[in-house]
Amino acid sequence: MSSILVSHLSFSYSTSVTVIDDASFTIPTGWTGLVGTNGAGKSTFLSLLAGELRPSEGLVTIDPSHAVVVTCDQRVDDLTQSIEQFSASWDVLDHRLRVQLHIDPIDLSRWASLSPGERKRWQIGAALAGEPDVLLLDEPTNHLDASGRRLLVDALRRFDGCGVVVSHDRQLLEELTTRTIRVHRGSVELWNGAYTAAKAGWESEAAETAASNERLRAEQRKLQRRLADRHQATAEKDARRVKERRAAGKHDLDTRGSAATYKHERGQKTGAQTVAKMNRRAAAVQDQLNQSAVPKDKGGSIDFPFEPARKEILARYRGPVDAGTHTLFDVDCVIRRSDRIHVAGLNGAGKSTLVTTLLGHLTIPHDRVLVLPQETTGNEARATLDAVRTLDPTERGSVLAIVAALGSDPASLLASDDPSPGEIRKLTLALGLGTRRWLLVLDEPTNHLDLPSIERVQTALVDYPGAVVLITHDEALAEAATTTRWSIGPEGITVDG
């Protein structure tokens, strides 16, 4: 039985930005989901669990101390030594895993042409073959079609160690996990239940906090009214006393005058004590409100500049679609300036290969096309950041406004040297929407995005008036943002719509 003890864990990349603040809990054997918005710190927390980062304060303790810890990154670019060893092994476990995941060692000879979904199955298979005590997964279902996803979930269910999975895939979290870690504005908390139950818990807590804050604000308004009334009453009494003393004359020193003065001064003292008490309570109420303040979620409506393409035909190709030396199928395809195309098919069917082929036969300038690949390398991410930084002020402002509307902080994103995959996807999409592109070619654009961001991207694509070619396994996104479906099969393309 393996577990992870998190004790008073804090982490900061700099003295001004705290990513994780004083987290303490135990992650037991079984699968635990790790959720949060893009940039919240999920991958950072996973790296702390893996020992790849050192905490600013606190400890991460793996039990037993000799436990084997394996991490699977989001990216699937590299054919690693562990994958090669897994492929070459005929150990009973390794063979069974390959059968379960529908992967064949002969496939490694064409690693460069394997789809990211096929590579992901190899990556997870190699991780499970290592028989780890602790398995840390970062977005394992990115790129997977429904069939590949089912194979992966079935394999992960057989894992009997301590597993933590970062995912925005609600179905995966419901099927696999029994606990949920939420990373939210520096706070990292463990909740009982899979995502739906855990979310209900933190939403209920947030609702209670909001109700409590509203009661405090109501009390605050009441105190402010009472203080205003008290100040007005005191001012009126002072004015009345001054008027009485002037009317009495300077020689009126009888007992009634002295008594009135005494009564007035005693009333002033009592009133001052009452005001001081109300001020203390008002300050306490404000402190409580400050401590429980809930910042507004980022994001908003998206406005972007656009001009229609000057040509009706944006790309045209007739001929074979080749993967290396192998012809997948023959096509006769056209992309027009008003087309909204969903490219669908199983992993490995040739969706990305088809789109790459079409991009080689554009009839418009390349700088009028935004291409968002399934995965972005570190060099590509830095190139995108540099491209945005060097835009003229008007275009840069437009792009960064879209970044903000998609739910990210433009300033911190541009200041980063290593943005998360989700953040760089938002920036790349904003670059296309904010710089008058005629054609968006998007390969699994919702990979790495949190759920609110997926909804915002969908809204942006629905509103975008140019041509869209969309490769996605997200049927809800495809239905909302496209009007034509190209289904890729062994015989080529079937067009619907």
Notes on the protein architecture:
By secondary structure, this protein is α/β, with parallel strands linked by helices. The protein is built from 15 helices and 17 strands. The strands form four sheets. It has a six-stranded mixed β-sheet, sandwiched between helices. α2 (81-88) packs across α4 (116-129) and α11 packs across α13 (421-433). It is globular. The two termini are 54 Å apart.
Radius of gyration: 31 Å
What strand line-up does the widest sheet have? Answer: 5-6-7-3-8-9
Number of helices: 15
Decide which structural class fits the backbone: alpha/beta
Could you report the average pLDDT, rounded to the nearest whole number?
85
Largest sheet: 6 strands, mixed
Give the overall shape, derived from the CA principal axes. Answer: globular
- Low-confidence regions: none
Terminal Cα span: 54 Å
- The share of residues in extended strands comes to 15-25%
- Count every beta strand, where a strand is a DSSP E run of 2 or more residues: 17
The proportion of residues forming helix, as a percent range, comes to 40-55%
Write the layout of secondary structure elements.
Elements: E1 3-14, E2 17-27, E3 30-35, H1 42-50, E4 57-63, E5 69-72, H2 81-88, H3 92-101, H4 116-129, E6 134-138, H5 146-157, E7 162-166, H6 170-176, E8 179-184, E9 187-192, H7 195-248, H8 255-291, E10 313-323, E11 326-336, E12 340-344, H9 351-359, E13 369-372, H10 378-389, H11 393-405, H12 410-415, H13 421-433, E14 439-443, H14 451-463, E15 467-471, H15 475-481, E16 484-489, E17 492-496
Parallel strand pairs: 3-7, 3-8, 5-6, 6-7, 12-15, 12-16, 13-14, 14-15
Antiparallel strand pairs: 1-2, 1-4, 8-9, 10-11, 16-17
Helix pairs in contact: 2-4, 3-4, 4-5, 7-8, 10-13, 11-13
